[in-house]
Amino acid sequence: MFMPTTTEPSDQLVEILNFYKGETLLVSIEIKDDISTEFVIPKMILDTHENKEFSTTVEMQSDSLGKQPSLRLKTNRLMNIKRVFYKEEIIWRKDAFEIKYQDGIVITVNVLDGNKK
């Protein structure tokens, strides 16, 4: 379980995702209780870009061959990052965190434990 050392949500997101490079992520996106989707990003690689609007774009994608999902996030409307995993849990994941945006979008990222079935 990784604890970020930065305080800004955008910096925390980059720090957490950098720590979990190469891991398999289960990503759930919920938009104001109306729309939700879930997908897996195997062997995640991370790419970040700074732009003129003082925002960072973070892209998570797979380094696996074949067509795999990817997710691109802009960090300028990020509200907070919150851990939603507790050490006492003995389940199918190593860690989990929730990314909240100002407009009601909530993204939950589960770091899957490849050793558990």
State Rg.
14 Å
Low-pLDDT stretches: none
Q: Helical percent range? A: under 10%
**Cα separation of the termini:** 19 Å
Shape: globular
Give the integer mean of the pLDDT values: 86
The string of secondary-structure elements, in order, is HEEEEEEEE
Question: Total number of β-strand segments?
Answer: 8
Strand-residue proportion:
over 45%
What's the arrangement of strands in the largest beta sheet? 2-1-8-7-6
The biggest sheet, with number of strands, parallel, antiparallel or mixed sense and barrel status, is: 5 strands, antiparallel
Structural class per helix/strand content?
A: mainly beta
Total count of helical runs of at least 4 residues:
1
Describe the structure.
The strands form two sheets. This protein has a five-stranded antiparallel sheet with strand order 2-1-8-7-6, covered by helices on one side. The mean pLDDT is 86. With 117 residues, the chain is mainly beta. Strand 4 and strand 5 form a beta hairpin.
Write the layout of secondary structure elements.
Blueprint: H1 9-19, E1 25-31, E2 35-41, E3 44-50, E4 56-62, E5 71-74, E6 78-83, E7 93-101, E8 105-112
Antiparallel strand pairs: 1-2, 1-8, 3-4, 4-5, 6-7, 7-8
Give a quick rundown of the structure:
The chain is mainly beta. The protein has one helix spanning 9-19, and strands spanning 25-31, 35-41, 44-50, 56-62, 71-74, 78-83, 93-101, 105-112.
